[in-house]
């Protein structure tokens, strides 16, 4: 578990201490990357979780780092469903190694049980409910897999995902993720693709292409055009009013105990940067 050197760990401790002096609570994020810093794919991560010695080694290293921060948040790459017993064992063992500081989890935004997402059932919230602190449902990229352009998230979808997670956990320590970035969908004949865009990039592109920005009935901004390579482009994003509308809808749907994780800070409409006080 990096950083592995004494110098690197001291630098991390110094950063955490500096943030503490500024009044922040600090959690350390745990993910899995290869030697080049790329997300570790399932073919390498799954065997590591399956190996009891590898699980114990990683847990010991995380436990050694945990005292410098206020908490640990686990955000692992996608795993196959067959990894569920190994991931469950790893999370439960990690909680035992962190007395008084249960780990929190980034969780796939499953809307049904079994999960309706590829690899979503690898994380069994029912089996780890006694071992976790907070669960962050990653309600992002609503149209990531269906090749249909549309908003990056949706209040009805968030409500369903949070409700299921609360049922699985038997309690309400769940946060939803509100993306502050938009999505540009590209639809060539053979292989539709998409990428994230910031608010300023989306507005700048519309201006450059002399396009009218439309607002959907749900409040999301969008426009479409044909690029020079002949592909069809469709861009969906939010501004301050649409984000506040989503928050007001969720305020009516969700209990006050549900938190919000703003995801993609810096990509939002500059006029919406007082959002942190908008969700009660």
């Amino acid at each position: 578990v990096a950083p592995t050197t004494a110098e690197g760990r001291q630098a991390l401790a110094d950063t955490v201490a500096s943030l503490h002096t500024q009044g922040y609570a600090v959690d350390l994020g745990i993910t899995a990357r290869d030697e080049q810093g790329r997300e570790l794919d399932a073919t390498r991560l799954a065997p590591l979780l399956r190996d009891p010695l590898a699980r114990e080694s990683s847990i010991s290293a995380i436990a050694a780092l945990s005292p410098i921060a206020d908490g640990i948040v686990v955000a692992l790459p996608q795993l196959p469903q067959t990894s569920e017993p190994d991931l469950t064992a790893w999370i439960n063992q990690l909680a035992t190694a962190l007395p008084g500081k249960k780990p929190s989890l980034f969780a796939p935004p499953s809307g049904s049980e079994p999960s309706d997402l590829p690899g979503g059932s690898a994380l069994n919230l029912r089996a780890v409910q006694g071992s976790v602190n907070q669960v962050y449902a990653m309600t992002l990229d609503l149209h990531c897999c269906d090749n249909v352009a549309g908003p990056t998230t949706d209040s009805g979808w968030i409500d369903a995902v949070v409700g299921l997670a609360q049922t699985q956990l038997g309690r309400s320590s769940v946060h939803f993720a509100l993306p502050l970035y938009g999505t540009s969908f590209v639809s060539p004949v053979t292989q539709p693709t998409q990428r994230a865009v910031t608010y300023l990039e989306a507005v700048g592109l519309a201006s450059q292409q002399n396009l009218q920005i439309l607002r959907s009935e749900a409040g999301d901004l969008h426009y479409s055009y044909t690029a020079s390579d002949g592909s069809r482009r469709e861009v969906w994003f939010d501004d301050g009013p649409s984000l506040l509308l989503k928050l007001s809808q969720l305020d009516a749907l969700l209990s006050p105990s549900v938190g919000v994780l703003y995801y993609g800070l810096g990509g939002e409409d500059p006029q919406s940067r007082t959002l942190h006080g908008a969700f009660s």
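The longest helix spans residues 6-21. The mean pLDDT is 92.
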